Each structure stands twice: as C-alpha cells, then as structure tokens.
Amino acid sequence: MMKSPAVSLKNVSKTFDGVTVLQDVDLAILPGEIHGLVGENGSGKSTLVKILGGVYTPDRGTEIALRGEPVTLPVRDPQRNGLAIIHQDLALVEEMSVADNIGVSTGFERGLMSLISKRRERRIVLRLAQTFGLKLNPNQMVGELSPSERSVVAILRALRLLGEGTTGNVIVLDEPTAALPRGESIKLLEMLRTMASNGTAVLYISHRMNEVLDVCDRISVLRSGKLVATREASVTTQAEIVALMLGYELGEFYPKKHVRTNEAVRLEVRNLTYGGVSDVSFAAHQGEIVGITGLAGMGQDDIPYLLAGGRTRLKDQVRVDGQSVDGSPTSAKRAGMELVPGNRLRDALWLEATATENLTLPFLRTFRRGPLLRSRAETAFAVQEMHRYDVRPRSPRLQIAKFSGGNQQKIIMARTMHQNPRVILLHEPTQGVDAGAKKEILSLVRQAADNGAAVIVFSSDSEEVAQLCHRVLVMRYGSVSAELSPGEVAEDRIVSLSQRVSAVRRAS
Length: 508
Ligand SMILES: Nc1ncnc2c1ncn2[C@@H]1O[C@H](COP(=O)(O)OP(=O)(O)OP(=O)(O)O)[C@@H](O)[C@H]1O
Ligand SMILES: [Mg+2]
Fold this sequence. Notes:
Layout: E1 7-16, E2 19-29, E3 34-39, H1 45-52, E4 63-66, E5 69-71, E6 83-86, H2 98-106, H3 118-131, H4 147-162, E7 170-174, H5 182-197, E8 201-205, H6 209-215, E9 218-223, E10 226-232, H7 238-246, E11 265-274, E12 277-285, E13 289-293, H8 303-308, E14 318-320, E15 323-324, H9 329-334, E16 337-340, H10 344-347, H11 355-360, E17 368-369, E18 372-373, H12 375-388, H13 405-418, E19 423-427, H14 435-450, E20 454-458, H15 462-468, E21 471-476, E22 479-484, H16 491-499, H17 503-507
Parallel strand pairs: 3-8, 3-9, 6-7, 7-8, 13-20, 13-21, 16-19, 19-20
Antiparallel strand pairs: 1-2, 1-4, 4-5, 9-10, 11-12, 11-14, 14-15, 17-18, 21-22
The chain binds adenosine-5'-triphosphate (ATP) and magnesium ion (MG).
Residues 16, 21, 39, 41-47, 88, 393, 402-406, 432, 434 line the site of adenosine-5'-triphosphate.
C-alpha cells in the first residue's frame, strides 16, 4: 500500500501579471522520502516553494494537503505543523549574530525566570554546527559570513525549527548547497538522509545533478512551469534528467581547454596578506584560466575582494600588465580588472532597477548624446545581449529582482564581458545556475580567455574547477598549500588536497 503523502500539491498554478509561471503542477512527497525538484533557471521551482511558504498566493484551483489534511494558505504556525522552508535567498538578518538569527525564528532558549538564555542559545548553535564538522562563531554578525557559512546558518535554523528526531515533518530546501564546497555539501546530504530515515519528508531543489541523483529517492522535473516527469532516482541517469529539463540533449558539457604556452603575465599577485589571507602569491597569464579553491573559510573567498572590491589598500602587491593596482574599485577598473561577485543580490545588482538598467550601468555614457539618454539604443542593446546570453524572460523592462537567480547571473556576465576586461575575477560564477546556462557561461569564460583575458575562478565546485581551469591552486588556512599544473589538474586530486586538514584544527 502507498504511504499517504506528508505533503501533496495538486493543480498548483501561478500567474504573474498575465504570465503563467506554474501550470497545474501535481507533486506528492512521502514521509521518509527525499524528493528532488529540478528544472532550468526560471522554470518555477522557487515560486512553488514560495507558494508553500505563503509568500505568494497561488491561482484558484490549487489544493495543498499536509499529512492528508487539506490546508489553507498561508499555513498557520508552520513550526507546529512541522513545516520548515529554507528559501533560496536564505532570509537571514545581516545585522544580527548567528545565534540570534537562529533563535529569533525558533523562539529563544529560555533559562531561569524565562529570560532568554544567550549561553544556551550559543551552545545549541555550536553543537549543531559541530554535526557538520564546522566552526561557526555564534556571536559573529551574519553580514560578515561567507556565502557557505550563511547557508549553514539557514540550514541550522531550519533543523532547529523542526526539532531533532521528530517524525512526520516536511522540510523544503531551495538550493541549500549552491554555495557549499563538495566536502561540506556531503555532510548536509548525509544529514538529510538521517532526517528522512526518521520519517521526515524532504523536498530538495538543486542544480547539482550528481548530488540530486545521489541523495534523492525520486526526482521531479519542471520545464517552463509544468511538471514533465517524476522518476525513481535508481533507474534514471543524469543525461535523462537534464534532457527532460531542457527538452533536448545537452551533449558535451565543459568547453575544451586550449592550452597556451609562453603568454605574457597579465595578473601578478605578490605576498598578499590581509585578514584570513596570508602571503598569497600567484600569476595568471594571457589566455589562462586559474582556479583557486579549498574548503569553506580557507581564505579563497576573500581574495577577489582584496584585489578589486575596495576592502583594503594595497601597496604594490597586485599588478595588471605591470600596472600597480591599489585595491580600490576605481583603480581595478582602470587596470581592466572586473569582478563578478558571489553574492549577486547584495554586491552586483541594483535590485530596484530593470534588467536594462543593470546591464548598461557601467557604460551608460555610451548611450548618451549630450544630456539625453538614447533609451531606444539602450533598450536595443539590452535586447541584443539578452538574446545572446539567452536571458529569460526576454523582458528588458522587467525589474531585475523578478528574474530567477540564474538569469540574473547571465545579465551580470553579459555586462562584465561587454567591457572586454583584461583580468576577470569570478567568485562562484555558476552558483545556482542550471545545466544549460552553466554550459553557456563557462563557454563564455573560455572565450574571454581565448581572447586574451586572464581569468581567475574562485569556486567551491571542484568538478567545475577541474574541468575549466588550466592551473589550480588549493588553499588551506589562508595560504596556497598546493598547486596543480596543467597535466595534474583532476577533480579527485583537488578534493583530496582540500580535505587534508588536520583534525585538531577542525575540532577546535
Ligand atoms: N514577483 C514576480 N513577478 C513577476 N515574475 C516573477 C516573479 N517572481 C518570479 N517570476 C518569474 O517566474 C518564473 C519562475 O521563477 P522562479 O524563481 O520560480 O524560477 P526557479 O526555477 O526557482 O529558477 P532558479 O533556478 O534560477 O532559481 C521566472 O520567469 C521569473 O522571472
Ligand atoms: Mg529558484
């Protein structure tokens, strides 16, 4: 007999301003099941999650039931109903500490005379973090955390919300591992497995197909807002799932590496030391793609911002084509160095503005004639770029905040590439980007290198680093601990070099 679903969705539809983004989606998640939900950027995954979370009201006809009981949305008191949702944007408060972010949504731990016990709160955070083998300072402000540390906080908050070990719960995770290095996402996936074996129903959204196939029992595929298939993970393949997502076969995924020798040095970094980065030196040549990777918190996430993000003054530690860069965004720009930041919502987008305005911001003056803005030319340019990068929907006047994560990233890449940079710093360039778009973005990166740019990829995705980069530096505790030359670059070597971390340091 079929178990009755922990959560069932029937005929879920959602229309925004006349545009249907979800159409009659039926989905049931069984207790004890990890159910994958995959689909291209913009296919409607987050919208579905937001309907369940009460952020959006669905169209009429939508029916939702929890443990067989029909519910009206928004679900009242989700915690009591055993429903926890981790949204794609994590919804953390930057100005609050880690412990307060976790405590505020779950009800703080109370001690004597029901005063909030900060000490207990901190202990709980430490214990939860330890299950992941992670160091997290409960007192640190969330605004200071790296992307992967933020996801961990959001996940810990949800786990805490549901209470450990209770059955019949539903947990929904919208791309929880997008910012996590392989080693850490494995820990999260193990945790989900444990939760599922205790009877929790898990809805798991991700663009990392290998993880989805590894961890899920069943996988549902959305294409343009419609559910096209649900498959048992044990009988399907990555190629089949991707083909279902796209509607066509993707073929060879990574672009070919063009090995070039004897090219001039474009970027030179010498003895870079600041905060968690100590004495890092490397060079990148014309046409070269260099990967810098490591476990979370090893310093690699800080380097792009030290080079180009205005975080600190530099004294001749960084040169582009021999020209010294002083660490300010203006001097980086002048030298032809462009940064694509990892946190696009915060650092790369002007959220209130349209797709066009975000695309043309750095070179707006090229669309001016005297005091007038040639907005027809500006829009024509935007349409052309959105076409070239296959941004969907192709709506130049739509507010950028309303595009899906992957499509926002394509707009940022289009803007960056248009400036013909000499050095491109990419921080987690394909985080949250679907298979089709990832292929396009990586081939653009390869093209930029073939045209002479030096590209530095700061990524936690070891497969991507191995497949894309000519040379790879692995970081541990702020320094470069190993370098793989072109003949040595391979994913398993990157993973094992990253993980050789002394047990003593990790436990402290
Ligand atoms: N508030 C909104 N107003 C108008 N359109 C919206 C709004 N929110 C989302 N959309 C549109 O709905 C579609 C589905 O978006 P959604 O965020 O659900 O995609 P997704 O599958 O989660 O993509 P990704 O993998 O990039 O996160 C997109 O075309 C998006 O532009
Ligand atoms: Mg989404």
